[in-house]
Each structure stands twice: as structure tokens, then as C-alpha cells.
Design brief:
Number of strands: 18
Radius of gyration: 23 Å
Largest sheet: 10 strands, mixed
CATH topology of the largest domain: Creatine Amidinohydrolase
Number of helices: 13
């Protein structure tokens, strides 16, 4: 069994330069690459300004642009040939934001961060201007913007800018993957009869918090193999305690300054899987191999879906998405299977080198009562899929 301590030794050796600084940041070359991407986005839409509005620890654009992970609220104002400004709503967050953020003047948002950005645009331009918006705002804020400006939704353009990762970003994703492997190893070590899902959450988080990493998702599900009643990891831990003969599936992601891994595995408590779960897991592993083999530059999203036919051939289906893009959000292509297609069908997306994907076949029975989960984060390379997670594949009998 791969242990937490073994994984810690590896990540501390390989990523010490990123783990040592109190507040790590990207190189000047990478920051300039992002600035140029923003400049192109604005020029293509003929924007006089771009507003990035995010809040409550949600959204990735503020961190990507400024290095500041959004807390209560942050509104960044970007204008051509003008120093960027970021307005922070909570005054007690201002000192740290001024220390961490780069390439922006950080100011207090006072009565309203978005209003301060609006005032700054109006002070420098007359007439109705064409501005872009990245992020989510309230209906009232949207109405205020629309009264004063021609507003262009730039969220799609931002997503497209995040699809292809730089080599530097891929290294950060590697660290996020290494940190995400820690809680999966902790889960394997601590899962045993009598331990509740809530207690497992405590062990999971204890494995990585000392590195300055944060929870993205810790989804678990446990049920009896002999009388299963759930097939996909749940978003909130229950008080249910494990018993011998249970199946336990997990989907975990840990964030390090905007970059996270994702690993999905299934465990059996105290004994080998029964016939149904052996069949489910064998199908999931075969589908994982088939989809990973299809991950090549030039492959279309439909090729990945077609590679998953073993799900339906075995009489099963899925609940979770089969594949999704990753690294800067839940990115395209988001794919289901033939029996459970994704909303909107198969997108017209062709894979390119340095795209990041999570391949995660959640093979389940048609009644949705029994299922397994497997998969992990990969990067598209010229020679195929490069797996970033190091926690071993396959199911484990634990406890």
C-alpha cells in the first residue's frame, strides 16, 4: 500500500521550491503570457475595459490574473495601457491582498467594489462604452452595468484562454495532483469498520493542511455491497459508519493556489468485492484504459465518448460525467456516455497538447443503487495522456 508518508517524501523533494515560500507566485514570464492573453481578448471584442468580479472563494480568474485567491469579494479593472486596479470589499483583507497580488494597485472597495470600478471607467471615458465582464454578479449589479455600458460576457473567452496550459502551469498541476494523492492514501489507511464518513473527512484534510493546501472537493459514498443503495460519491459526508463488507468510493481534489489534482478510487472494507462489484470495477478499469488510449492531440470529444462503449455493452450506465476539462475550473469538454449524455450533447472540441482532463468512469447499475468510481487527472501530450496522479490504480481491500 502506498502510504501518506511515502507520498509526502516525494512531493517535498520534487516541489520544495513551490512549497517553501509563504505566498508562492508564478514567474514574470508566465504573468506576462497571461497579460498578453487578456490584451488579445480585449482587442478581439474592441473593449475599452474588462471587469473581473468574483466573490465568496468562487471563481478562478482573479487568482489567474492577480495571484489573489478571492475571499469575500474582489473586482479587478483592466484597461488598455493603464495600471490595473483591484478593489477588495473587506477592509481587513486589504493588507494581505496588497502583499500577495501582483500587477495591480489594490484598493478598498468601500461601499461597493463594483461601483468603484464603474466610477473609474466613467471618470476616464465619456459616452456609452463597450466593456467586458468575467465572473458572476447579482441581477441588480448587472442592471447597473447595463445602464452605463454595452456589456459583453467574456466568461467564454476566459475559459478558452485556460484550456491550453503553459509548462509552468502543468508543473503546478503536478503539485496539486501530488497533494491530492495524500488524502486518498489517508483514506486507505483510516477506512475501517466503525469509522464514519465524517471522521474520514477529518483524516483526509489533516493529510495536507500543513502544506497550505485547501479543500476543493471531498466526495465520499459508502454502502453495503450486499444491499447497496447509492452509486456515486456524495457532496456531503454522512454520519454513516463503515462496516465489514462495505464499498467506499471517493472523489478528491486539493487546491494549491489555484491548481489542484483530482483522483477517484474505490475501496472494499474487510473483504474482496462480490461478483457484482468485481464486474462493475472491471468495466470501469477497461473504460478508463480505453478513454486514456483515445486521449491524443487531434482527437475529437466524440472519440472519447465512443471509447466508453464497454459501459453500455456490460449493461451498465454512469451518473457522474465521464470526462471533463480541468485546471482553472470545470472546463470543456464535459462528456457523458451514450446512455447518459452530457447536457447539450457532445461539444465540438478537439484535443490539443497541454490540455488537462479528468477521466473518471463512474460505472453504475441501471437502477442507480450500486456503482464504483475510478480515474484521475491527465495532461494531453504529443504521445498521449500523461497521468499526473501517483496514487495506484485499481481497487483496494482495506480496514
Amino acid at each position: 500500500m502506498t502510504t501518506v508518508e511515502q507520498l509526502k517524501l516525494g512531493l517535498e523533494s520534487e516541489y520544495s521550491d513551490l512549497l517553501t515560500p509563504s505566498y508562492p507566485r508564478f514567474s514574470d514570464i508566465e504573468i506576462e503570457r497571461r497579460s498578453q492573453a487578456l490584451d488579445r481578448m480585449m482587442a478581439e471584442e474592441d473593449l475599452s475595459a474588462l471587469i473581473v468580479a468574483e466573490s465568496m472563494f468562487a471563481g478562478s480568474a482573479t487568482g489567474w490574473i492577480t495571484g489573489w485567491p478571492v475571499t469575500a469579494e474582489a473586482v479587478t479593472l483592466i484597461r488598455p495601457n493603464t495600471r490595473r486596479r483591484m478593489f477588495i470589499q473587506f477592509y481587513n483583507h486589504l493588507p494581505l491582498a496588497q502583499q500577495i497580488a501582483h500587477g495591480v494597485v489594490v484598493e478598498w472597495g468601500e461601499a461597493g467594489s463594483l461601483q468603484r470600478a464603474i466610477d473609474a471607467i466613467e471618470a476616464s471615458h465619456s459616452g456609452k462604452r463597450r466593456i467586458g465582464l468575467i465572473g458572476r454578479i447579482t441581477a441588480g449589479q448587472a442592471a447597473t452595468l447595463a445602464e452605463r455600458f454595452d456589456v459583453i460576457d467574456m466568461n467564454g473567452a476566459y475559459v478558452r484562454a485556460r484550456l491550453i496550459k503553459s509548462d509552468e502551469e502543468i508543473r503546478w498541476l503536478g503539485l496539486g495532483a501530488a497533494l491530492t494523492d495524500l488524502p486518498m492514501a489517508a483514506l486507505a489507511e483510516q477506512a475501517r469498520p466503525g469509522v464514519s464518513e465524517r471522521e474520514l473527512h477529518g483524516h483526509i484534510q489533516a493529510s495536507y493542511l500543513s502544506y497550505g493546501a485547501r479543500n476543493v472537493i471531498h466526495f465520499l459514498h459508502s454502502t453495503s455491497m450486499d444491499a447497496p443503495d447509492t452509486a456515486v460519491p456524495r457532496q456531503f459526508a454522512s454520519a454513516r459508519k463503515l462496516t465489514e463488507g462495505d464499498v467506499l468510493s471517493a472523489e478528491l481534489s486539493v487546491d494549491y493556489w489555484g491548481y489542484s489534482g483530482q483522483v477517484l478510487r474505490t475501496f472494499f472494507i474487510g473483504r474482496e468485492p462480490n461478483a457484482l462489484y468485481r464486474e462493475l470495477h472491471a468495466a470501469a478499469e477497461e473504460v478508463l484504459d480505453a478513454v486514456l488510449a483515445a486521449v491524443q492531440p487531434g482527437a475529437h470529444a466524440r472519440d472519447l465518448v465512443d471509447a466508453s462503449h464497454r459501459i453500455e455493452d456490460s449493461g451498465f450506465t454512469i451518473i457522474d460525467d465521464l470526462v471533463h476539462g480541468y485546471g482553472g475550473g470545470y472546463l470543456p469538454p464535459v462528456l457523458g456516455s451514450h446512455s447518459r449524455p452530457a447536457a447539450g450533447g457532445i461539444p465540438d472540441v478537439t484535443l490539443k497538447a497541454n490540455m488537462a482532463l479528468v477521466v473518471q468512469p463512474n460505472v453504475v447499475t441501471r437502477d442507480g443503487k450500486a456503482g464504483v468510481q475510478t480515474g484521475h487527472l491527465v495532461v494531453v501530450t504529443d504521445s498521449g495522456a500523461k497521468v499526473l496522479q501517483r496514487f495506484p490504480r485499481g481497487y483496494q481491500v482495506v480496514g
